[in-house]
Design a protein that fits this description.
Structural class: alpha/beta
Number of strands: 8
Number of helices: 12
Strand order of the largest sheet: 1-2-3-4-5-6-7-8
Shape: globular
Bound molecules: phosphoenolpyruvate
Helix content: 40-55%
Radius of gyration: 17 Å
Order of helices and strands: EHEHEHEHHEHHHEHHEHEH
Protein backbone atom coordinates (compact mmCIF):
# COMPACT_ATOMS: atom_id res chain seq x y z
CA UNK A 1 0.00 0.00 0.00
CA UNK A 2 2.73 2.45 0.91
CA UNK A 3 4.41 2.18 -2.47
CA UNK A 4 1.16 2.49 -4.40
CA UNK A 5 0.78 5.97 -2.91
CA UNK A 6 3.62 7.22 -5.06
CA UNK A 7 2.95 5.42 -8.31
CA UNK A 8 3.61 7.59 -11.33
CA UNK A 9 0.73 9.43 -13.02
CA UNK A 10 -2.37 7.73 -11.64
CA UNK A 11 -5.99 8.15 -12.48
CA UNK A 12 -7.30 9.47 -9.19
CA UNK A 13 -10.78 10.13 -7.86
CA UNK A 14 -10.31 11.97 -4.57
CA UNK A 15 -13.19 12.96 -2.33
CA UNK A 16 -13.04 15.86 0.09
CA UNK A 17 -15.80 15.44 2.64
CA UNK A 18 -14.91 18.74 4.31
CA UNK A 19 -16.77 19.28 7.62
CA UNK A 20 -19.66 16.96 6.82
CA UNK A 21 -21.05 13.59 7.96
CA UNK A 22 -21.53 11.94 11.34
CA UNK A 23 -19.27 9.02 12.25
CA UNK A 24 -22.00 6.54 11.31
CA UNK A 25 -22.55 8.25 7.95
CA UNK A 26 -18.81 8.35 7.26
CA UNK A 27 -18.43 4.61 7.92
CA UNK A 28 -21.40 3.80 5.69
CA UNK A 29 -20.06 5.95 2.86
CA UNK A 30 -16.58 4.50 3.25
CA UNK A 31 -17.97 0.96 3.16
CA UNK A 32 -20.00 1.65 0.04
CA UNK A 33 -16.87 2.89 -1.74
CA UNK A 34 -14.94 -0.19 -0.58
CA UNK A 35 -17.73 -2.36 -2.03
CA UNK A 36 -17.64 -0.48 -5.32
CA UNK A 37 -16.05 -2.02 -8.42
CA UNK A 38 -13.13 0.33 -8.88
CA UNK A 39 -11.51 0.11 -12.33
CA UNK A 40 -8.09 -1.55 -12.33
CA UNK A 41 -6.07 1.59 -13.03
CA UNK A 42 -8.01 4.00 -10.80
CA UNK A 43 -7.05 5.04 -7.30
CA UNK A 44 -9.63 6.42 -4.86
CA UNK A 45 -8.72 8.75 -2.00
CA UNK A 46 -11.20 9.68 0.73
CA UNK A 47 -10.57 12.98 2.54
CA UNK A 48 -12.23 12.51 5.90
CA UNK A 49 -12.64 14.72 8.98
CA UNK A 50 -9.98 14.05 11.62
CA UNK A 51 -12.09 12.19 14.21
CA UNK A 52 -12.94 9.40 11.77
CA UNK A 53 -9.52 8.82 10.22
CA UNK A 54 -8.28 5.97 12.43
CA UNK A 55 -11.44 3.95 11.92
CA UNK A 56 -11.51 4.57 8.17
CA UNK A 57 -7.87 3.51 7.88
CA UNK A 58 -8.73 0.30 9.70
CA UNK A 59 -11.73 -0.34 7.42
CA UNK A 60 -9.74 0.40 4.24
CA UNK A 61 -6.44 -1.29 5.08
CA UNK A 62 -6.98 -4.41 2.98
CA UNK A 63 -8.17 -2.56 -0.10
CA UNK A 64 -5.30 -1.61 -2.39
CA UNK A 65 -7.33 0.92 -4.39
CA UNK A 66 -8.86 2.99 -1.58
CA UNK A 67 -6.67 5.40 0.39
CA UNK A 68 -7.48 7.69 3.29
CA UNK A 69 -6.55 11.39 3.42
CA UNK A 70 -6.63 14.02 6.14
CA UNK A 71 -7.76 17.50 5.11
CA UNK A 72 -4.87 19.36 6.76
CA UNK A 73 -1.90 18.90 9.06
CA UNK A 74 0.21 21.15 11.27
CA UNK A 75 3.29 22.97 10.05
CA UNK A 76 4.93 21.90 13.33
CA UNK A 77 6.33 18.52 14.29
CA UNK A 78 4.89 18.32 17.81
CA UNK A 79 4.49 20.28 21.01
CA UNK A 80 2.43 23.14 22.42
CA UNK A 81 0.13 23.81 19.46
CA UNK A 82 -3.34 23.38 20.93
CA UNK A 83 -5.90 22.03 18.50
CA UNK A 84 -3.40 21.09 15.79
CA UNK A 85 -2.71 17.66 14.33
CA UNK A 86 0.84 16.60 13.51
CA UNK A 87 1.75 14.71 10.35
CA UNK A 88 3.36 12.09 12.58
CA UNK A 89 0.02 11.48 14.32
CA UNK A 90 -1.64 10.90 10.96
CA UNK A 91 1.15 8.58 9.90
CA UNK A 92 0.87 6.63 13.14
CA UNK A 93 -2.78 5.71 12.50
CA UNK A 94 -2.20 4.69 8.89
CA UNK A 95 -3.33 7.80 6.99
CA UNK A 96 -1.95 7.77 3.43
CA UNK A 97 -2.38 11.35 2.21
CA UNK A 98 -2.99 14.86 3.38
CA UNK A 99 -4.77 17.59 1.41
CA UNK A 100 -2.80 20.83 1.79
CA UNK A 101 -3.49 24.38 0.65
CA UNK A 102 -7.18 23.90 -0.01
CA UNK A 103 -8.75 27.26 -0.93
CA UNK A 104 -10.99 27.11 2.14
CA UNK A 105 -7.86 26.87 4.36
CA UNK A 106 -6.27 29.71 2.39
CA UNK A 107 -9.40 31.85 2.69
CA UNK A 108 -10.69 31.15 6.20
CA UNK A 109 -7.39 30.40 7.91
CA UNK A 110 -5.19 32.81 5.95
CA UNK A 111 -2.81 30.06 4.88
CA UNK A 112 0.03 31.32 2.69
CA UNK A 113 2.09 29.26 0.30
CA UNK A 114 5.03 29.68 2.68
CA UNK A 115 3.02 28.03 5.46
CA UNK A 116 1.70 25.38 3.07
CA UNK A 117 5.29 24.56 2.10
CA UNK A 118 6.15 24.02 5.77
CA UNK A 119 3.19 21.66 6.04
CA UNK A 120 4.37 19.82 2.92
CA UNK A 121 7.78 19.34 4.53
CA UNK A 122 6.13 17.94 7.67
CA UNK A 123 3.89 15.61 5.67
CA UNK A 124 6.71 14.33 3.48
CA UNK A 125 8.98 13.82 6.49
CA UNK A 126 6.36 11.34 7.74
CA UNK A 127 5.97 9.66 4.36
CA UNK A 128 2.47 11.01 3.79
CA UNK A 129 1.37 11.65 0.22
CA UNK A 130 0.39 15.27 -0.41
CA UNK A 131 -2.47 16.62 -2.50
CA UNK A 132 -1.41 20.23 -3.03
CA UNK A 133 -4.26 22.56 -4.04
CA UNK A 134 -3.88 25.72 -6.08
CA UNK A 135 -6.23 27.91 -8.07
CA UNK A 136 -7.41 31.45 -8.75
CA UNK A 137 -10.36 33.52 -7.52
CA UNK A 138 -12.95 34.84 -9.96
CA UNK A 139 -11.60 38.40 -10.18
CA UNK A 140 -8.16 37.05 -11.07
CA UNK A 141 -9.60 34.94 -13.89
CA UNK A 142 -11.75 37.82 -15.13
CA UNK A 143 -8.65 40.01 -15.26
CA UNK A 144 -6.90 37.33 -17.32
CA UNK A 145 -4.24 36.72 -14.66
CA UNK A 146 -5.15 33.14 -13.76
CA UNK A 147 -2.11 31.44 -15.25
CA UNK A 148 0.33 33.91 -13.68
CA UNK A 149 -1.46 33.56 -10.34
CA UNK A 150 -1.27 29.77 -10.25
CA UNK A 151 2.37 29.83 -11.39
CA UNK A 152 3.19 32.17 -8.52
CA UNK A 153 1.44 29.83 -6.04
CA UNK A 154 3.55 26.99 -7.40
CA UNK A 155 6.80 28.92 -7.30
CA UNK A 156 6.26 29.89 -3.66
CA UNK A 157 5.52 26.31 -2.63
CA UNK A 158 6.10 23.06 -4.48
CA UNK A 159 8.67 24.45 -6.94
CA UNK A 160 10.95 24.90 -3.93
CA UNK A 161 11.07 21.11 -3.47
CA UNK A 162 13.76 18.93 -4.99
CA UNK A 163 12.93 16.59 -7.88
CA UNK A 164 12.42 13.53 -5.67
CA UNK A 165 10.02 15.41 -3.37
CA UNK A 166 7.94 17.08 -6.08
CA UNK A 167 7.60 13.72 -7.86
CA UNK A 168 5.57 12.51 -4.88
CA UNK A 169 3.12 15.43 -4.95
CA UNK A 170 -0.37 15.19 -6.44
CA UNK A 171 -1.42 18.64 -7.67
CA UNK A 172 -5.09 19.68 -7.57
CA UNK A 173 -6.03 22.67 -9.71
CA UNK A 174 -9.16 24.10 -8.16
CA UNK A 175 -10.43 27.41 -9.50
CA UNK A 176 -11.96 29.02 -6.43
CA UNK A 177 -14.95 30.29 -8.43
CA UNK A 178 -15.89 26.71 -9.26
CA UNK A 179 -15.68 25.22 -5.75
CA UNK A 180 -19.08 24.48 -4.27
CA UNK A 181 -20.72 26.93 -6.68
CA UNK A 182 -22.11 24.54 -9.26
CA UNK A 183 -19.98 26.37 -11.86
CA UNK A 184 -17.42 24.12 -13.47
CA UNK A 185 -14.43 25.18 -15.50
CA UNK A 186 -14.94 24.11 -19.11
CA UNK A 187 -12.85 21.11 -20.16
CA UNK A 188 -10.78 23.55 -22.26
CA UNK A 189 -10.18 25.88 -19.30
CA UNK A 190 -9.12 22.91 -17.15
CA UNK A 191 -6.84 21.53 -19.86
CA UNK A 192 -5.24 24.94 -20.47
CA UNK A 193 -4.29 25.33 -16.81
CA UNK A 194 -3.21 21.71 -16.32
CA UNK A 195 -0.98 22.02 -19.38
CA UNK A 196 0.54 25.24 -17.99
CA UNK A 197 1.15 23.56 -14.64
CA UNK A 198 2.81 20.54 -16.24
CA UNK A 199 4.95 22.77 -18.47
CA UNK A 200 6.01 24.82 -15.47
CA UNK A 201 7.11 21.67 -13.66
CA UNK A 202 8.86 20.45 -16.83
CA UNK A 203 10.77 23.73 -17.23
CA UNK A 204 12.36 23.27 -13.81
CA UNK A 205 12.61 19.48 -13.37
CA UNK A 206 12.43 18.08 -16.90
CA UNK A 207 9.80 16.13 -18.83
CA UNK A 208 10.17 12.86 -16.96
CA UNK A 209 9.25 14.42 -13.62
CA UNK A 210 6.46 16.53 -15.15
CA UNK A 211 4.92 13.63 -17.03
CA UNK A 212 4.93 11.49 -13.89
CA UNK A 213 2.89 13.93 -11.81
CA UNK A 214 -0.86 13.47 -11.41
CA UNK A 215 -2.81 16.73 -11.78
CA UNK A 216 -6.41 16.66 -10.58
CA UNK A 217 -9.16 19.11 -11.41
CA UNK A 218 -11.48 20.30 -8.62
CA UNK A 219 -14.57 22.47 -8.77
CA UNK A 220 -18.13 21.14 -8.95
CA UNK A 221 -17.16 17.83 -10.53
CA UNK A 222 -20.26 15.64 -10.82
CA UNK A 223 -21.34 12.54 -12.76
CA UNK A 224 -22.64 14.73 -15.62
CA UNK A 225 -19.32 16.47 -16.30
CA UNK A 226 -16.62 14.11 -14.97
CA UNK A 227 -16.04 12.13 -18.17
CA UNK A 228 -15.43 15.16 -20.35
CA UNK A 229 -13.10 16.80 -17.84
CA UNK A 230 -11.16 13.59 -17.07
CA UNK A 231 -10.84 13.03 -20.82
CA UNK A 232 -8.52 16.02 -21.22
CA UNK A 233 -4.90 15.14 -21.94
CA UNK A 234 -3.40 16.73 -18.81
CA UNK A 235 -6.26 15.99 -16.42
CA UNK A 236 -5.54 12.87 -14.38
CA UNK A 237 -8.66 12.89 -12.26
CA UNK A 238 -10.60 14.99 -9.82
CA UNK A 239 -10.77 16.33 -6.28
CA UNK A 240 -14.47 16.22 -5.55
CA UNK A 241 -16.31 17.98 -2.73
CA UNK A 242 -20.11 17.91 -2.73
CA UNK A 243 -20.54 14.95 -5.08
CA UNK A 244 -18.19 12.79 -2.97
CA UNK A 245 -20.74 12.80 -0.15
CA UNK A 246 -23.20 10.74 -2.17
CA UNK A 247 -22.00 7.21 -2.78
CA UNK A 248 -23.95 6.85 -6.04
CA UNK A 249 -22.58 10.08 -7.49
CA UNK A 250 -19.02 9.39 -6.36
CA UNK A 251 -19.35 5.83 -7.66
CA UNK A 252 -20.28 7.19 -11.08
CA UNK A 253 -17.37 9.63 -10.99
CA UNK A 254 -15.01 6.74 -10.22
CA UNK A 255 -16.26 5.09 -13.42
CA UNK A 256 -15.74 8.24 -15.51
CA UNK A 257 -12.15 7.70 -16.66
C1 LIG B 1 -13.30 20.84 -3.15
O1 LIG B 1 -13.66 21.10 -2.03
O2 LIG B 1 -12.13 20.53 -3.31
C2 LIG B 1 -14.26 20.90 -4.25
C3 LIG B 1 -13.83 20.84 -5.46
O3 LIG B 1 -15.61 21.04 -3.92
P1 LIG B 1 -16.87 20.88 -4.91
O4 LIG B 1 -16.67 19.63 -5.71
O5 LIG B 1 -18.06 20.80 -4.00
O6 LIG B 1 -16.88 22.10 -5.79
Amino acid sequence: LQDKKYQMRNKIAAGNWKMNLTFAEAKTLNQSILDHQIPQDVKVILGSPFPYLAQLCELSKNNDKVFVAAQDCSAHGKGAYTGETAAQMLQSIGVDYVILGHSERRQYHKESDTLILEKIHQAQSQDLGVIYCCGEALEIREAGNHVAHVKSQLSESILKLDAAAISKIVIAYEPVWAIGTGKTASPEQAQEMHHEIRNTVAAQYGDEVANGISILYGGSVKPANAKEIFGQADVDGGLVGGASLKSEDFGEIIQSF
